[in-house]
Design a protein that fits this description.
about 30% helix, about 475 residues, 14-stranded mixed beta sheet, alpha/beta, single chain
């Protein structure tokens, strides 16, 4: 089935829709957009600003640097912190027709050498050459290097960023602020490439400890955040009685994890539209977006135009030009079926075509009774309480070896503060038990723990799930 939602998205996007154009590859997109926006500011970083013209020239010169060491379709690692040089190097790598292997900046030399063996990159662009010391037969290139002459772009694969423009009207010539790592597909595609595609300015926040200070000076209009960062900013905004990202912010794109309805509603009260979305690394991030954020806050939205999908036994399967060809360095035969990529995500779709994520296949809990439990579905129920910030449902076992469901929750501090002098723990347990009692008997939790600290999280701020008993 093809998600033919182009006309629907046209209505949501308004006049901005006429400025959206598909490009065959990344090089074509960058050449066209950098010329169109030549005199506008593309990047603000470390106290300096760079126009689209200057960035395009620096990218062309860095292609010359790269061409002295590699040629298409070589793999080139990029190991550096978020910076102008990272952006320049990435664009040069992919527009030379090479594959960029984006490595997290915190990796040590031993791990970098291990990734070289796995991914087989021929060169590494870095701001820390010592981390490449253990790599063998690899050209080490400084991310700050340049050349006197440019090298032209070559045809290449890659997302053109079109889908990031769909679903809201204020999209072109905006001010984005980058706080996510560019090695995360959400930060790379939805933050960097969306900004460049739309002629916007991207402020690179080099240290998230300074993001509110940077926001106060830069006044971003669009932010791209994971829910945990959106939650933190909301808490501080309520505490200090002002939007911590500034009064110019009108749009917040939120994804990479479940987006609580509470965030959509509370940001709306602040005058900010928070749009949940859905994507995967394997899909170049962009699969769906939710333009009906207020009427359907629990949905990840409408499948973007041009993406084929079907739902097989509750699992979402995808096809499309945005999908990856395969995994590098390992075989994953179960990930594909007749050209369809099996996402592993359990979903449902309402009568209007809006998608809802109900869980992950690999997280399904099979109880001794034979019942299948999706922890994410139960967590969504408990997270609907304003007083609950996050939760985790997992399989537990008692001293007698009996298996049951446990629930741990992190209360939302801003909502707790509204409760006054009442017994807060008793109130939270009472609210949770109301939801628990309304669940089918087999899916009710038997133990509730109210945490005083957050869950352990991955680098992308997702909750680390407890291992099954």
């Amino acid at each position: 089935m093809i998600a033919d939602t182009l006309e629907i998205y046209r209505r949501y996007t308004g006049a901005a829709f006429d400025r959206i154009k598909h490009y065959d590859n990344m090089a074509e997109m960058w050449e066209a957009r950098s010329a169109e926006y030549a005199d506008l500011t593309a990047i603000a970083d470390n106290g300096s600003t760079y126009t689209y013209r200057q960035l395009a020239e620096d990218v062309a010169r860095f292609r010359t640097v790269l061409s002295r060491h590699v040629s298409a379709p070589a793999r080139v690692a990029l190991l550096a912190a978020n910076s102008y040089d990272w952006v320049k190097a990435f664009l040069a790598i992919v527009t030379l027709g090479c594959t960029a292997v984006a490595l997290p900046a915190h990796l040590d030399a031993k791990t970098v050498a291990g990734t070289q063996k796995l991914f087989g990159f021929a060169a590494i662009v870095t701001d820390n050459p010592e981390k490449a010391a253990r790599c063998q037969d690899v050209s080490v290139i400084s991310a700050a290097e340049t050349a006197d002459t440019p090298t032209g772009a070559a045809a290449c694969k890659g997302s053109d960023g079109v889908n990031s423009c769909l679903g809201y009207t204020n999209v072109f010539e905006q001010r984005y602020m980058l706080v996510l790592p560019l090695t995360h597909v959400f930060g790379l595609i939805r933050n960097l490439l969306a900004s460049l595609y739309t002629g916007s300015t991207l402020l690179i926040c080099r240290d998230n400890k300074n993001m509110f200070r940077d926001a106060a000076a830069f006044q971003p209009t669009i932010m791209v955040l994971v829910p945990a960062l959106a939650e933190m900013a909301l808490t501080l905004s309520k505490k200090f009685g002002r939007n911590m990202f500034g009064n110019s912010l009108h749009t917040l794109i939120c994804g990479a994890a479940n987006v609580p309805q509470y965030l959509v509603e509370e940001y709306h009260r602040m005058g900010v539209a928070l749009y949940p979305g859905y994507g995967l690394t394997e899909s170049a991030n962009l699969v769906s977006g939710n333009p009906e954020n207020l009427s359907k806050p629990g949905s990840v939205g409408l499948i973007y135009p041009g993406i084929e999908y079907k739902i097989v036994d509750g699992e979402l399967w995808l096809k499309g030009r945005n999908m990856m060809d395969g995994y590098v360095g390992r075989e994953e035969p179960d990930a594909y079926a007749d050209g369809w990529f099996k996402t592993g995500d359990l979903v449902r779709m309402d009568d209007d075509g809006f998608l809802y994520i109900t869980g992950r296949i690999k997280e399904i809990i099979v109880l001794p009774s034979g019942e299948n439990i999706s922890p994410a579905e139960l967590e969504a129920q408990f997270n609907s309480l304003a007083v609950i910030q996050d939760s985790q449902v997992f399989e537990d076992v008692d001293d007698a070896g009996r298996h049951f469901l446990s629930l741990e929750v992190v209360p939302r501090a801003t909502e707790l503060a509204k409760l006054g002098d009442i017994d807060r723990e008793a109130f939270i347990r009472g609210e949770l038990q109301k939801i628990n009692a309304a669940l089918p008997a087999f899916s009710r939790v038997n133990k509730i723990v109210i945490r005083s600290s957050d869950f352990e999280r991955t680098p992308s701020m997702k909750i680390v799930r407890y291992k099954k008993c």
